[in-house]
Amino acid sequence: MNKKHWNTLVFAKSLPASLVTELIGHSHELVVKGLPAKLRNLLSGGDD
To answer: Which of 4, 5, 35, 46 could form a disulfide with 39 if both were Cys (CB 3.0 to 4.6 A apart)?
Structure first.
C-alpha cells in the first residue's frame, strides 16, 4: 500500500478536532486528484 499521503497523528487533548478533520480532508483531496478522471467522475456522482 502506498503511504505517500498518510498522516501520523498523536492524539492528545491539545489536538483540535478541526485540525484532524482538515488534515484528513487534505489527504483525501490529494488521493482523489491522483485517480483517473473516469473514476473521479464516478465518485463525485457523475454519470460516466
So the answer is: 35
Amino acid at 21: T
Answer for the pair 17, 25: CB distance below 8 angstroms, yes or no. Answer: no
Cell representation of residue 30: 490529494
Is the pTM higher than 0.85? no
**What are the φ and ψ backbone dihedral angles of 37, each rounded to 5 degrees?**
-55, -40
Q: DSSP assignment of 1-48, as one string?
A: ---TT-------TTS-HHHHHHHHHHHHHHHHHTS-HHHHHHHTT---
Q: What's the rounded Cα separation, in Å, for the pair 8 and 3?
A: 11
